[in-house]
Amino acid sequence: MATLEQQRAQDAWGKSARYTEKHRNFAKGMPALIMNSGLMQVLAFCHEKEGEHEEIARDLRRWINRRFNGADNDPGFEPFMQMLLRSEPRQYQMITAEALAWLKWLRQMASARQGGD
User: Fold this and answer.
1) pTM (global) more than 0.85
2) C-alpha dihedral sign at 32, 115, 54, 91
3) CA count, 13 A, side-chain hemisphere, 32
4) Positions of E strands within the chain
5) DSSP structural state of residue 26
6) Dihedral sign, CA of 110, 45, 66, 4?
7) CA proximity to 80, closest of 42, 27, 32
8) What number is the average pLDDT over the span 53-72?
9) Across residues 56-80, what is the average pLDDT?
10) How sure is the predictor about 113, in pLDDT bands with cuts at 50, 70 and 90?
């Protein structure tokens, strides 16, 4: 059975296969945005920007949904934000930590697939 780190890596590897250089560049900066502004603000920003921003946010929502609800689908922007708005502080912190852990893998896998640094 794969460890949680292996599962994150496998998921990030699969999702980054279709990413372009724009995806890679945004994925690199997304953890810093979350640490500076918070998860919900960054997801709202991604939704507003659309394109590769929303695509990465969709992949992140899908991973979080899989980890915490066992469902391998994207719940959608509004239902996911409602879930975050209603979550207890401890749960919100756990979701944010999971998002950062998954994004750590995503930025590395996207760079590896693009041949970047």
Assistant:
1) yes
2) negative
3) 6
4) none
5) H
6) positive
7) 42
8) 96
9) 96
10) confident
Query: Quick one: tokens of 61?
Result: 């929502």
Burial 40-77, CB ≥16 within 10 A → b, else e: bebbeebbeeeebbbbbbbbbbbbbbbbeeeeeebbeb
Closest CA to 45 of 28, 60, 29, 33: 33
Residue 16: both structure tokens together: 């980054």
Structure tokens belonging to residue 5: 């780190």
Amino acid at 47: H
pLDDT tens, position by position, 80-89: 999 999 999 9
The pLDDT tens digits of the residues spanning 4-55 come to 999 999 999 999 999 999 999 999 999 999 999 999 999 999 999 999 999 9
